Amino acid sequence: MTFREISARYLEPASIAFMIGGIVALCQPWHLGLHSWGVTIILVGLVGFNIAAHVPKPAPAAAKDH
Q1: Distance CA 65, CA 10 (A)
Q2: Residue 66 placed within a domain
Q3: N or C: less crowded end of the chain, CB within 10 Å?
Q4: 61: buried, middle or exposed (CB in 10 Å: 19+, 13-18, 0-12)?
Q5: Residue 26 lies in a domain
Q6: Widest CA span of the chain, in angstroms?
Q7: Number of domains within the chain
Q8: How far apart are CA 35 and CA 52, in angstroms?
Q9: How far apart are CA 43 and CA 62, in angstroms?
Q10: Which pLDDT value is given to residue 48?
């Protein structure tokens, strides 16, 4: 399994879930600590998603033969 496959299968969905968790933490009214860290959690998920989404795809097999 290549890093691109790992990134597409695990890292991108994990960072999306992290961003959703940050939104939930930001919007919940019960725990001030979670609310205080909500934007930071969203930003960490966003940076992780940008890194995981921009991993270059492997070169096609036809291009390697030439």
Answers
A1: 30
A2: no
A3: C
A4: exposed
A5: yes
A6: 61
A7: 1
A8: 26
A9: 39
A10: 93
Confirm whether 28 is domain-assigned: yes
- Profile the chain (66 residues) by mean pLDDT over runs of 10 residues: 83 94 93 91 95 78 58
Model's pTM, two decimal places?
Answer: 0.77
User: How big is the CA angle at 54 (ends 24 and 47), to the nearest 5 degrees?
Assistant: 35
Show the domain range for 35.
3-55
> What is the separation of C-alpha 25 from the centre of its chain, rounded to a whole number of angstroms?
17
In whole angstroms, what is the distance from residue 34 CA to residue 6 CA? 29
C-alpha span between 21 and 40 (Å, rounded) = 11
**Which residue in 5, 10, 15, 1 sits closest to 55, CA to CA?**
5
Q: So what's the pLDDT on residue 4?
A: 82
Closest-CA residue to 25 (of 4, 43, 42, 13): 42
Q: Return the closest-CA partner of residue 49 out of 8, 3, 21.
A: 8
